[in-house]
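job 3f2a | input accepted
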Amino acid sequence: MNIKAVIFDMDDLLINSHPTHMLAFEKVLNSYGRSFKDDPLSAQEEAGFFGMKVVEIVDLFKKRYNIIATIEEFQAKYAQEVIPAFQNKIEEMPGARETVKSLNESGYLLALASSAIRNKIDIILKHLQIESVFKTIVSGEDVSRGKPDPEIFLNALERLKEVTGQPLHSQECLVIEDAANGIESAINAKMKCIGVHNQPMYQHLGIKQDLSKADFEVESLEEITPEIINKIE
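job 3f2a | predicted structure (233 res):
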């Protein structure tokens, strides 16, 4: 089947968000008298957060650093830190808005499926000036299970069908992801996938995500064109 719809992830694909997330989590830990310095995370552990829902990471940190608080309280504190941070500074990945606009102009139906909270998604898309090109947006608040579960991408597919009135199938959807968890999620949804290697993450952690299960791998969003997508079809 030909690809008719393209579903984008957001964090660490369209923007370099990991450093901002970790700084926000450190500030929350500090508010409880804890710090990453108490029990440093390995590069592999940090890389494992990519694609996870915030609530899952919160639960992990609560247990690891023995935080006496509810998940809701911890997550609320995190939101109070991370939202202003992204309002003040957003680091766009090379080719982010150009690739999104190019695929939109080429006639693909676009959706965004991110584990982030909706408020943050709106801030990012407005900054990138691409909020109007997505037919639908699915946030981490819209699903009960995080990646690698396929729920978020299947949710995006159903919403695309409702919005466009087109009888789309999973095999007609292409997911663009930067994380191994996201690649697995796309595969579990029976969708095609392009894996985009996150260069800032590699420079920071010294490791790359294993994106070998994707149908195609690229080093940057700048490499993704309709011609590349046609090769996958």
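job 3f2a | The domain at 18-88 is CATH 1.10.150 (DNA polymerase; domain 1).
job 3f2a | closed
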